Structures are given as structure tokens and as C-alpha cells.
Amino acid sequence: MVVITETLRRHFVHLGYVAALLLLIIIPMTMGALGVPASQDYGLMSLFALIAGCQLIGPEFSSGTLQLVLSKPVGRSSYLLSRFTGVVLSIWVAVLVVFGSSYAGSLIGKAPFEPRVALSAATAAALQILLTCALLTLFGSMSRSYANVAMYIGSSILISMIAGVLMMVKNATNGELAAMGRFLREHPSIIRAVQTFKDNVFPEPPQLPFDRNWILMVACNASIALLLACIIFRSREVPYGAD
Amino acid sequence: MAPTELFDRSRQRALPLWLPLVVAALIVARIVSSRFAVRSAEDLVRWTPIRQARAMSAATHKPILYEFSAEWCGPCHELEKEVFFDQKMAASINDRFIAVKVVDRRQEEGRNSPDVDGLQKQFAVRAFPTVVVAQPDGEELRRLTGFRGAPQFAAFLNGAR
């Protein structure tokens, strides 16, 4: 509990967080006043999650903080999960701010506001943030400094490139890639597997509001990432001192 | 001097028992949930009952969008899946029209209700699906017969402002 409140306090007093919140008030309010659908308000949240979540565990290896914390009778998994919870809660506050600003903007501009659509967009954003932070925690548990962000962005780009290249090769009928194209057409499960992995690790917002299957998928994947993070972190040796 | 109570370092590395249980429960829930269809597409478009459509259209200054369909009609189900099932398109319909679903029941029940019959005669509906955009006084603005894909339907909606 102490770790959660300390994490929240660190975010709420940080100038960058306050500045980002101001931005997240002005932009959705303007968009709400102009009648832009509420689902468009959460585009910045993934960037916000990356910035807030980049400090999960990885940088604490480098700074020596972790060595100090773990010299106390604090469970490793408890510490990791508490830090994760604090970061997620601080970003969820921002999601609430966006929702409220969008609604306020629609009142000011007398624009239509669909509460169900807005709420489902907020829920989807909150769950995507949960998964992003869980993955950053997982990558942070096995790396140092801010390498977790690099791993997250790198894997996102890599999987998109692989999916795109496979689709291109699948349509090849002439030239050197024709044989590979034929192979991919005869084995559609390969592309399907890559696409499924991409949809599970880096999901797009759901087509339907409150899509039960999408919600369970994201929650399940986030919990698996956290479990893996705990397993890696429990066996990792914390170095003496900072880098 | 009393002995100092030492902290058991092996407990520090222990996994919380509840976490693997939560993961297992979520995996099971996900598998079970995937076997049941997500709620039907009718939840996305706010369908108005036939008798309330004209009053609502006059009150909201939105034209009425009549969707004439039948249970046995394959293209009607494709239209539902690709348009009414689609969040963006359904939201666009909800924003701009009073949507009314007019389902032909002659094959199942032998006859239609007077409201359905009346509308089919009024707009000379001879095939399904037929989508008609009309004013509250019944003046037809635009019509689309058949379904040839969501982009074509989106263009039809955009032309029917």
C-alpha cells in the first residue's frame, strides 16, 4: 500500500504529469465541443502510458534504488506489483480526466455526447494501458534503465513489419518469392498465428462497445505478463550499487 | 541481548499464490466466453418502432432510415454484419437518422402486420434488402436496393444527408 501511494504521489507532483494532464483537459474538451466522437479522445493515452510506465523496475536496477528497497523485508513480487498498480492508477486518473473533459466540452459546444460510446472508449483505453504497463513491467524485470520502452516499441514495430511482409509475400505469384507465396497460401495458419500474436500483444480498440471477449483477452494477457515478470524478477540478482 | 529476528530471504522471492490463480481463472473465463457469441448487432443501432418513427423524426429533424429485410435474406444478414455490427457505421446511423427495421414475415407467418405491409406498399419494396431514407411526411429522399459492401453503403449514407 505504501509503495502504491508513494508511486501515485511521485506522479501527481511531477511537473510533466501535471502538464500532460492540462493537455489532456484542453484537447478532449475542444474535440468534445466540436462533436468529435469520444472514441477519438484516447489517442494520446498510449504515449502517456509509455512515458509513465518506462520507470517500472528497469531504471531502478540502474539507479541502485532496487538494491536499497530489497535490503528491507519487502517481497519482490509485492514490490513489483505495487509499483505496477501505482503507475496504472495514475494513468487511469488521466483517463477519467479525458472522459470528464470530453463531456464538459460537449456541454459547452452543445455537441452530441453518446455516454455509452464514450464509456466504452474509456474502458478500452484503460485496459490497453493495463496491458501496456504489464508488458513494460515484464520487459523491465529482465532489463536495465529504460530498455523496457525500447523493447516494447521495437517489438511492436517488428511484429507489424513481419505481418506486413508476410501478407506481401503471400500475394507473390512471380519471381523469387513465388515459392514462398505459394507456401504461405497453402499454410494460412502461419499468417493467422502472427496476426493472432499481434492482436493479443498489441490489440486495437474493439469494434463493439464493451466487447466481452476483447476485455477478457486484454485482462488475461496483462495478468500473464505480470506473472512472467514476477517469475523473472524473483530469480534475478540485484547488483550491489548503481550502474 | 535477545537474538535479532532475521528476515527469511527465501520468502522474499516467493510468488504470491493469488496471482497464478487469477491468471488461471482469466484463461478459463476467456476460453468459456469465446464459445458464446457476443451480443447481437441490433444493440449497436438504435431501432425505433415503426409507429414512433415519424414523431421522432419530426421532433429531432432527422430523416427516417427504413431497412426492409427478411429472415431468409442472405444479403440482409451481410448488411447487418458489415454495417449494423460495425461500431463506427452504427454510430453514424444513430447520429444522423431515425432507424426503423421493417422485417417481412410472409414466409414465416404467411402475412405481415398492417404497418409492415403499408410501408412496403408506400415505398414499392420488391426486393431485400432495400434501404429507404425518407422525410417524416413520407417523401422518399434516397433508396438503395441490395447490398454490395460497406463502402458503398457508407457512400449511400453520406449522400442521404
Give a brief outline of the structure.
The complex is a heterodimer of chains A (243) and B (161). With 243 residues, chain A is an all-alpha fold. In chain A, 75% of the residues lie in helices and 0% in strands.
What's the structural blueprint in terms of helices and strands?
The complex is a heterodimer of chains A (243) and B (161).
Chain A: H1 2-12, H2 15-33, H3 45-53, H4 58-63, H5 65-70, H6 76-108, H7 115-141, H8 147-170, H9 178-186, H10 188-201, H11 212-235
Helix pairs in contact in A: 1-6, 2-6, 3-6, 3-7, 6-7, 6-11, 7-8, 7-11, 8-9, 8-10
Chain B: H1 9-12, H2 18-34, H3 50-60, E1 64-70, H4 74-84, H5 87-96, E2 98-104, H6 106-109, H7 114-122, E3 130-134, E4 140-145, H8 150-159
Parallel strand pairs in B: 1-2
Antiparallel strand pairs in B: 1-3, 3-4
Number of strands of chain B: 4
Instruction: Report the structural category of chain A.
Output: mainly alpha
Shape of chain A: flat
Report how far the terminal alpha carbons of chain B are from each other: 88 Å
Tally of DSSP β-strands of chain A: 0
Protein model, in words:
- The complex is a heterodimer of chains A (243) and B (161).
- Chain A has eleven helices and no strands.
- Chain A has helices at residues 2-12, 15-33, 45-53, 58-63, 65-70, 76-108, 115-141, 147-170, 178-186, 188-201, 212-235.
- In chain A, helix 7 packs across helix 8.
- Chain A is flat and about 60 Å long.
- The relative contact order of chain A is 0.15.
- With 161 residues, chain B is of the alpha+beta class.
- Chain B is 47% helix and 16% strand.
- Chain B has helices spanning 9-12, 18-34, 50-60, 74-84, 87-96, 106-109, 114-122, 150-159, and strands spanning 64-70, 98-104, 130-134, 140-145.
- Chain B has a four-stranded mixed sheet with strand order 2-1-3-4, sandwiched between helices.
- The mean pLDDT of chain B is 84.
- Chain A binds chain B through residues 37, 39, 70, 73-78, 81, 112, 114, 117, 206-209, 211-213, 216-217, 219-220, 223-224, 226-227, 230-231, 234-235, and chain B through 7, 11-16, 19-20, 22-23, 26-27, 29-30, 33-34, 38-39, 44, 85-87, 91, 94-95.
